[in-house]
């Protein structure tokens, strides 16, 4: 259906959603469309869909073994899709709005402790010290991730013009085209300057060996190589650096509102998950150190 392809274009160009979100939403809405064809057993329209069809779809997904998190995302995709249909087609119904979102068991974010962080950077610095382009670039990316807490899509989309090495700050484009300016630490700017001297001229900040913009997948592979140098590395993903950034700031006494702004979270509640991580760590320290704990 052309509504779905237009919706995908809207997500990419208007909302500036990450490629991961766009693919997931396209997959979810397409799956619901396929379900409706079987459910109604004949001609049907998006405007004619009712909440019973939404419930039936979610029940079918559950029977297939789809997890609560994926079902919640599918429901979010359908709500967004119907808002898009309202804006572009004048369809006033949104049957997904009344559906109850599955309650998700919130898992604490995976992050690196201070020792792991030190080991990771020591290894990356040693590799970059050999003078190779790839290793120098990878250290600069690692430093930028940990220094700013930026998302994978934000780093991959960086251009030269976004980085101000005089003021030590970078402009990031987050979800929904929201821009924010965040500070960059001195070690990150040093690593970035070293990399830029090797890279030469260009628009994209991080490039591959052919001078083309490094894709999000390329960034993931580069970080995976570095993660593999520490004991727990095979279980870590790029987002662990963002989690580490937030957790270490809160551990050091940063206030929650500031961390929210640095991360680009729309809701303070999203940032609060990191306080649970800090509290857990403090409890361990307390029980180890307090004589009457």
What does this structure look like?
The model has no long low-confidence stretch (mean pLDDT 89). This protein is 60% helix and 4% strand. It has 13 helices and three strands. A three-stranded antiparallel β-sheet has the order 1-2-3, with no helix packed on it. It is globular. It has helices at 2-14, 19-40, 51-63, 68-89, 114-129, 133-148, 152-156, 186-199, 216-227, 239-251, 256-263, 268-271, 273-289, and strands spanning 163-164, 169-173, 179-183.
Radius of gyration: 22 Å
Strand content: under 5%
How are the strands ordered across the major sheet?
Answer: 1-2-3
Distance between the termini: 63 Å
Q: From the helix content, strand content and strand pairing, which structural class follows? A: mainly alpha
For the record, the CATH class of the largest domain is: Mainly Alpha
Summarize the amount of helix as a percent range. 55-70%
Helix tally? 13
Which residues form runs of ≥5 with pLDDT under 50? none
Total number of beta strands: 3
Mean pLDDT: 89
Q: Which fold name is given in CATH as the topology of the largest domain?
A: hpI Integrase, Chain A
Give a quick account of the main beta sheet: strands, pairing sense, barrel closure: 3 strands, antiparallel
Tally of discrete structural domains: 2
CATH superfamily of the largest domain: Intergrase catalytic core
Order of helices and strands: HHHHHHHEEEHHHHHH
**Inertia-based shape:** globular
CATH-scheme architecture of the largest domain: Orthogonal Bundle
